[in-house]
Design goal:
Number of helices: 2
Structural class: alpha+beta
Oligomer: single chain
Shape: globular
Distance between the termini: 61 Å
Order of helices and strands: HEEEEEH
Strand content: 15-25%
Strand order of the largest sheet: 1-2-3-4-5
């Protein structure tokens, strides 16, 4: 992937961060280390971000982040894949997205919990 393509993808990741903060994307958590969002279409697609634990050099973080863009018409292979393992800027941007999604879901869960508690007095 060229540096201009990577820069373009990072712009899209920034857009995901902003729209997640604004509550415009409803992320799902299919497992503890993965978040996914499926579009209602058209076009129909999905974005998946996953935190992956890896054994690395002591100077590297123990985790990596992988973003995949899926198209059901394209089969099971991702149309776009971005990994933070080889590029620190990509790593930091994907980590920001992952943490933004986690925070958004936690906030919604806490809001729900508060909403079902008995009201005082």
């Amino acid at each position: 992937m060229s540096s201009s393509e990577t820069a373009e993808l990072l712009g899209y990741v920034d857009q995901l961060v902003r729209t997640t903060r604004d509550g415009l994307i409803q992320w799902q958590r299919p497992n503890p280390t993965t978040f996914s969002w499926s579009t209602q279409g058209p076009p129909i697609g999905a974005v998946v971000i996953q935190r992956v634990e890896r054994r690395r050099l002591p100077t590297m973080p123990p985790e990596d982040y992988v973003l995949q863009v899926l198209d059901p018409q394209y089969g099971t292979s991702p149309r776009v894949m971005l990994e933070g393992e080889k590029d620190r800027v990509v790593f930091e941007k994907l980590k920001e997205l992952y943490e933004t999604i986690a925070s958004s879901i936690s906030r919604k869960n806490l809001d729900f919990f508060r909403s079902i508690l008995p009201k005082p007095g």
